[in-house]
Amino acid sequence: MLTSKQKKYLKSEAHSLKPIFQIGKDGVSHKQAMTILDALEKKELIKVKLLDTCPLTVQQAALEISMQTKAEVVHIIGHTIILYKESEKEIYKLP
């Protein structure tokens, strides 16, 4: 579980990132969740964008992704989810 100080740090780091995944009309599939997990292992911090055609709300999609990947939801902004999962590389040093 991330503290508020850690979330604030990660939000500032994610500000310059572009969303690398889009969730569309099919929602969150297992295959897509595993691809997100692979990206989290390499980058630790990513953004996921929900398209207007997605049948899930942004909160439902964030919960689904975090349950399947065991990642932390750092923040939700509009239709964008910021996810963090610590990897062995330790790219981000949390306060």
From TrEMBL:
A Pfam family it matches: CRS1_YhbY
Coiled coil: none
Keywords in alphabetical order: RNA-binding
Lineage: superkingdom: Bacteria
InterPro entries: RNA-binding_CRM, RNA-binding_domain, RNA-binding_YhbY, YhbY-like_sf
Gene3D superfamilies linked: YhbY-like
GO molecular function term, any single one: RNA binding
SMART domains named among the record's database cross-references: CRS1_YhbY
Domain annotation CRM: ranges: 1-95
Name used for this protein in its record: RNA-binding protein
Annotated source species: Intestinibaculum porci
